[in-house]
Amino acid sequence: MPDTTTETETGAGNAAGGRKRLVSGPGLLLVWLYGVMVVGAVSRSAYQISSEFDRAPLAYSLSAAAALVYAFITYSLVRGGDRARRAALVCCGAELAGVLAVGTWTLIRPEAFPDATVWSDFGMGYLFIPVILPVTGMLWLRAKR
Q1: Which residues constitute the domain of residue 72?
Q2: Looking at beta carbons, which pairs linking 118-122 to residues 24 or more positions away fall under 8 Å?
Q3: Which residue has the higher pLDDT, 83 or 17?
Q4: How many CB atoms lie within 10 A of CB 36?
Q5: Structure confidence by residue, pLDDT tens digits, 49-65
Q6: d(Cα 131, Cα 145) in Å, to the nearest integer?
Q7: Burial label, 19 (beta-carbon count in 10 A; 0-12, 13-18, 19+)
Q8: Within a domain: residue 15?
Q9: Is residue 57 part of a domain?
Q10: What is the pLDDT of residue 10?
Q11: In whole angstroms, what is the distance from residue 45 CA to residue 60 CA?
Q12: How far apart are CA 43 and CA 47, in angstroms?
């Protein structure tokens, strides 16, 4: 019986080594938005940590953590493949949990945050993108399953 497996099924003909592309169509916009968030969170946290860390160490550390999460999700989306998709899905869930936790915390105990983080007030300083982006990301990643 002849082998009817195609190159696409085995991944031999795929430039990404058999990985499914996650950055096609709306996924490209998602990667672009995550990239913008990486730049915003990294630049904000780097400046704040290097110049005024003693003023609000928790807020600035949380902004740096957000930058790392955004960078990992961006990398996973660009990398593609099932493992990267699952990792990005988990990170989007963790990101959403972080945004909801920090957003709630900043509303309940604003004195704990003398300066805003990327996730303060559910990302209000970033047009609520930090709360919308992980939901959109999870929906996209589940659709690409």
Answers
A1: 22-143
A2: 118/37, 118/40, 118/41, 118/44, 118/45, 118/62, 118/63, 118/66, 118/67, 119/62, 119/63, 119/66, 120/59
A3: 83
A4: 15
A5: 999 999 989 989 999 99
A6: 22
A7: middle
A8: no
A9: yes
A10: 39
A11: 6
A12: 6
Are the CB atoms for 87 and 94 separated by under 8 Å? no
At 92-109, the pLDDT tens digits run 999 999 999 999 999 999
In-domain check, residue 3: no
CA angle 34, 90, 26 (to 5 degrees): 40
End-to-end CA distance of the chain: 31
Number of structural domains, the chain?
1
Q: Assess if residue 7 is contained within a domain.
A: no
Average pLDDT, the chain: 84
Sign of CA dihedral 69, 74, 79, 84: positive
